[in-house]
Amino acid sequence: MKTAEQLHILFKKHLDNTCSLEETQLLMDYFQLDEDQEVLKNLIIGALEVHDEQYEKDLAIAKVLGKVDQDLFAQIQQSAQAVPKGKHKMLRLWLKIAAVAAVLAVAYLGFYFLNKQPEKIADVSKIAVNEIKPGRYGAVLTLANGRKVSLANASKGEIGRESGIVITKSADGKLVYEVGEKASDPNATNTLSTARGETYQVRLPDGSLVYLNAASSLTYATSLIQNGKRVVTLSGEGYFEVAKDKQHPFIVKTDRQEVEVLGTHFNISSYADDAIEKTTLLEGSVKLSVSGDSRILKPGQQAKLYRGGIQINETDTDLAVAWKNNEFVVESEHIENIMKMIERWYNVEVVYIGEKTNQRFSGKVSRFDKISKVLEIVESTGEAHFEIKGRTVYVSK
């Protein structure tokens, strides 16, 4: 396909907002070539000759014009005088936008999203300079005798025996507890801890499965049973698939609440630096107890605990457990909440420069993508900008 024909097709797809990220990048690459400038000028002039209802397309043209130098902009402005007078109202508005875009033609546009109103041009050139890899499967198991085992480096097979419980690392990397002989010390405890940039799974002696998010810990009796109940203490975030056992209720304790279940799937986010603790129920039922106040959650509901009170709302449970499925999924989230997720998973420090944006962000990306891809999606809105130095991410508006 000839360059001019391909450029025309890409330009039209851009105006229709149907360009993929790869096609948008290719379009931007074309605009860096001197031989394509005449083709670009004709495309923009042609696109000008439209009805006022095409206002959003005019905004897209202005963004593209941000790749053109001042001389070319002057040529286009002069050529645009030939547009019929009936279009002048739209033209004046477009030229005002285009003038701003031409002044901003110093940024290299990697990719961006087209919304219904003008956006700032994103500069992603500083993000990928110092690439940071995503987190991994790993944790440290602290046994009752104080011995610490790095599970990322441990070979599969038996790790230890405590109080009649056999502890092994499975072939798929999961920590598994199996009841052997009768427990001799029911008060012996283990702690499974993930650092920043780590996640892990544990199969408890009753068959319950727990997914542990980054910067989290789970403490439990080796036998799991305490005073006739299955009890674990959570710090950070964990997703629970609790095995049914009506004779032994399952209790999750955090610093701020206690959650009691018989058999269910639920997620608890209880990070010390989060103002709100969230409990999200996927199936079954749970009872939350906070300072003498008890509430029952139904599937599809989320309880938010803050300032000692409980607020229950219907929610999209997929958002709450996206991390367990190795995804970042946010919907109308503030920048601070997104950056906390990034801090924990990529093991970085976040520093804000100047005023924080009030914009809310939505998006989805794999947790195993490099940090640049996650940040570029946010930066492409033009509402936040990032620079990475070492393991520090600087955020500006």
From TrEMBL:
Residues 328-395 form the Protein FecR C-terminal domain. Keywords: Membrane, Transmembrane, Transmembrane helix. Residues 191-287 form the FecR protein domain. It comes from the Bacteria. This is FecR protein. GO terms for molecular function: sigma factor antagonist activity. The chain crosses the membrane at residues 93-114. It comes from Pedobacter terrae.
